[in-house]
Each structure stands twice: as C-alpha cells, then as structure tokens.
Amino acid sequence: MTMPPTGRRAVSTSHGLAEDLRISIARLSRRLRTLRPVPTEGAGEASPLSLTQFAALAALERHRSMTPRELADHEKVQPPSMTRVIAYLEGQGLVERSPHPTDGRQVVLSVTTAGRDLLAGERRRKEAWLSQRLSELTAEERAILRKAAPILDKLSQA
Questions:
Q1: Which of 21, 75, 80, 87 is most enclosed, with most CB atoms within 10 A?
Q2: Residue 60 DSSP label
Q3: CA torsion, points 67, 39, 27, 61, in degrees to nearest 10?
Q4: Percent of the chain at pLDDT above 90?
Q5: Over the chain, what is the mean pLDDT?
Q6: Ranges of each domain in the chain
Q7: pLDDT class for 47, splitting at 50, 70, 90?
Q8: 3-state per-residue secondary structure call for 72-138
Q9: pLDDT digits (tens, 9 = 90+) for 67-125
Q10: Which H/E stretch holds residue 145?
Q11: What pTM did the predictor assign?
Q12: What is the DSSP letter of 67?
C-alpha cells in the first residue's frame, strides 16, 4: 500500500516531491505550533512565548550557554531585537545572566530550571499529539515514516 498523494497529484518529479514535502512539512509545523498553551486569565501563569522567544530559549538550552550576540547571530535577528527577547525571558525567570568567564564586558545566558521545565512541557505536549496522530496510521504508513525520519533530518541539516 502506498501513501496517498497530498491531494493534488501523484509525485513523479523531484520538483513535485519538493513541493509536496514543503507543503506537508509547513502544515505539520504550523499544526504543532498551535499546540502551545494559552494561559488562563488571572491565573498567575506566564504569558505564552512568541515563536522567537521560544526558539531563543530552545537554542540556549541546546547550546547550554551563549552570549547575547551569539544568540542573536544563531537566531538570525538583530541584537536590539534579541535584547528585548532576552529581557522578556529573563523577566519570566526562564533565562539567567552570569559573568563571561574571560571577557568582563560580556555576559553569558543560560536557561533556568523553570525554562527547562517549560521546554520539556512543550515537547511532551507536541509529542503526545504527534503520537496520537501516528497511532491513527496503518502499520505500513508508520514504517514508511520511520524510514523517512532520518532522511528528513538529513535534509534539515544540509
């Protein structure tokens, strides 16, 4: 059994495959982004993070620590924009600053326990949703996706 095309036509060219993958990955990514929690008004919860704030927090966690400039460069945003992102994350208790080990003019940013907890909760929520969707597929469809996952990762690293 083959997986059905995404609704337009069977993929027979590299261009057609590229188009179908782009659309499908964008839809899946958009769907996963919609799973972010919405705080209850007056419940004392932190406001949900913007995508830029969430990406910066995740990058800091992945790299363990970075200077504000390194983080801005990594996220491909201007330093003044990243300064606002960092200020918000710090104000929410998700990021902390410490002195740079060799350059007294700089600081190093790292994720707090609260920041790691927030990221872990986001990942659990998204993985639970995706696990549920995967359980609705046939065993053959899941096997195809299992084989495709490392290939998609390879494409993302190129």
A1: 75
A2: H
A3: 20
A4: 53
A5: 84
A6: 48-158
A7: low
A8: HHHHCCCHHHHHHHHHHHHHCCCEEEEECCCCCCCEEEEECHHHHHHHHHHHHHHHHHHHHHHHCCC
A9: 999 999 999 999 999 999 999 999 999 999 999 888 888 899 999 999 999 999 988 98
A10: helix 139-157
A11: 0.70
A12: -
**Which tokens in the block code for residue 60?**
């800091």
Options 3.40.50.800, 1.10.10.10, 3.40.50.300, 1.50.10.10; CATH of 48-158: 1.10.10.10
Which DSSP string corresponds to 1-57? -PPPPSSS----SHHHHHHHHHHHHHHHHHHHHTTS--PPTTS-PPPPPPHHHHHHH
pLDDT above 90 (res 36): no
Phi, psi of 119 (to 5 degrees): -65, -40
